[in-house]
Design brief:
Blueprint (H helix, E strand, L loop, with lengths): L1 H10 L5 H16 L5 H16 L2 H13 L10 H4 L3 H16 L13 H9 L3 H10 L1 H13 L5 H11 L5 H8 L9 H8 L20 H10 L5
Helix pairs in contact: 1-2, 1-3, 1-7, 2-3, 3-10, 6-13, 8-10, 9-10, 9-11
Length: 231
Amino acid sequence: MRVALKITSLLLSYPDAEMKREAGNLIKVVEDDQSITDTARTALIRLLKQFEERDLMDLQERYVFLFDRTRTLSLHLFEHVHGESRERGQALVDLMATYERAGFYIDTEELPDFLPLFLEFLSQAPEDEAKDFLSQIAHILTALQERLKKRGSAYQNAFIALLSLARAKPEAALVRELLDRPEHDPDDLEALDNVWEEEAVTFGGGAGENACGPDRIDRRMRAHMRDPRNP
């Protein structure tokens, strides 16, 4: 399962020449991985074949179109929970602290809730813990998979694989709430500017209830991931 999480992390990162070059070798790795479900194996191979067969520039353009220009397909997990609100800032602080407590330190400028980064973290965690964390975001993964399926995107396979690895059924009400949110046309640049013109994320928090003591981090992170209505 760890290898599958690592590969999925790479697949959901911005495509580069190395990833395309190694796609064939990674297909063989997935084929030989007996620690994952048949559903996850099939889904990952389908996506890897896209990387193997399609032009790199096409892969890169499609990635930007889907994940950078379509807010409802954002790969930042807390975007689907808090948007750019102040609550997201505290959730990010808590998640960063969870990483550090596990000895996982970020050497990138990406926010800690970036899904490929989160999957990299899970690939180093005990399997039961990784499944638990995946199950907590199952509603987000399902909503993303459904939106990508509607677009006919091969990227839906990454989320099919993750949901299969989690072996968890998301809460239907939470999935419905996410899917009911309006989507915006990525080709309408003026509308996109309006959508992204939000309040900046604020890191840190005050004392008392919003303080992020070590004994509260996991509990707060789980709450932030499980329920988009949770402040």
